[in-house]
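Q&A FORM
Asked by: J.P.
Topic: structure of Protein phosphatase

PROVIDED:
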Amino acid sequence: MAGYPRWHTASEKGPRERNADAVSAYAAAGAPGITFALADGVGDDPGARRAAQVAAAAAARTPVEAGPVKAILAAQQAVRRLGGTGDAVLVVAMPFAGGYRIAWVGDARAYAWDGSMTHKLTQDHTLAEYFRSRHQPYSPRMEHLVTTSVRTAKPEEIGTTETPSGGLLLTSDGVHKVLPPATIDEILADPARGASALVATAIALGGRDNATALFVEPADVRTRVTERFPTAA
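REPLIED BY: S.T.
REPLY: Here is the structure written out as tokens.
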């Protein structure tokens, strides 16, 4: 679309039975850009997959003027309406002049991209991060135990930040918990590889989870690739 940034996304289920990650993007009439959302279902079952799809779609379609926290809460309402126990973690990036306002729950991440390096914008809501920030011991398993989720988060528990950067990367933990920051930077230095190379590399290096990335190119990038990815309606 004219006037909007180029973006691309890719996802692989890895060794899991199904892909419970989902992405969605929506540009409302009159909005300053595109709202992006990436969700990672909790578990490897149909309920987790559906929760992620519904959460991403509801978050992306929240009016920009409502803000990203409201987008998380809209996703929460949508997931709860499903019934059952399906749940997801979620990150949403809403555009404003020159950048994005971001909200998240769980361990889905957002990074700013300045054309040469990524800068992590979010802080994982996991038991490991909780204890790490308090200089307390933790086990590797705690890296995968989230302390907030779409279904359960209270408004005051939702993380928020913003970035003036035009370049943006959203990832599920199947990408960022496998790839070191230097590897992510190296891959994004060649924009033609973008999201697809991040996902493929994570799986090739032995990732055991679904791997999903959504990359929004800086405005001055000229080499572009678009990956097809099914999103919730």
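FOLLOW-UP: Residues 80 and 151 are 6 Å apart (CA to CA).
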